[in-house]
Amino acid sequence: MTTVLICDDRRGVREGLTRVMSAVPGVSRIDCVAHGDELLARFSRAPVDVVLVGTQRAVPTGVEATRRLVSANPQANVIVFGAPDDAGSIAAAIAGGARGYLRWDASRPELVAALAHTLASTSVPAPRQPSDPGVQLTDRELQVLRGMAMGKSNGQIGRELYLSEDTVKTHARRLFRKLGVRDRAQAVAHGFRRGLVS
Fold this sequence. Notes:
The protein folds into 2 domains: 2-120, Response regulator (Rossmann fold, 3-Layer(aba) Sandwich), CATH 3.40.50; 139-194, Winged helix-like DNA-binding domain superfamily/Winged helix DNA-binding domain (Arc Repressor Mutant, subunit A). The chain has 9 helices and 5 strands. The chain has helices spanning 11-22, 36-45, 61-72, 87-95, 108-119, 139-149, 154-161, 165-179, 184-193, and strands at 2-7, 27-33, 50-54, 78-82, 100-103. Strands 2-1-3-4-5 form a 5-stranded parallel β-sheet, with helices on both faces. Helix 1 (11-22) links the parallel strand 1 and strand 2. The longest helix is centred in the last third of the chain and has 15 residues, at 165-179. 39% of the residues are buried.
């Protein structure tokens, strides 16, 4: 049976995640905390199998909570929850030690898979896997991916690379297809896991 600890400063999010997680087979206990200090104290007092940390665009609390928890407890299995287009927060949380991420609207099968992979000490996979795991990105696609990892818009990436925004979008679509992901956040997280960005 799996024990879960949810950390988010929004009460509605904590309650919503608790309802969703309570329906996941194998989850025996779910506790909630609102802030990073509570998370550290609660985990050190009674470690759990999986920690779910909510992230918000331009709000560093979730990323900082992840970083502090993993720094103090390297064995902690953290999954971050966030908006699918908030690549910056998700990438920062993964860089801070999270094993993977899920979208706020993740389906129950995705939640089950995430818990299973995390407990097996592997990174949480993107919902879709690339058809060819050995596929290589072009230099331009890597430049676009790295720009995304820095939280830059398509327009900003285009200006830096002297490309039109439409051309950047084309490169983005190609790298999404190669990596087997649906959006920027998944692409960035996948890039961190494969060492394509740092």
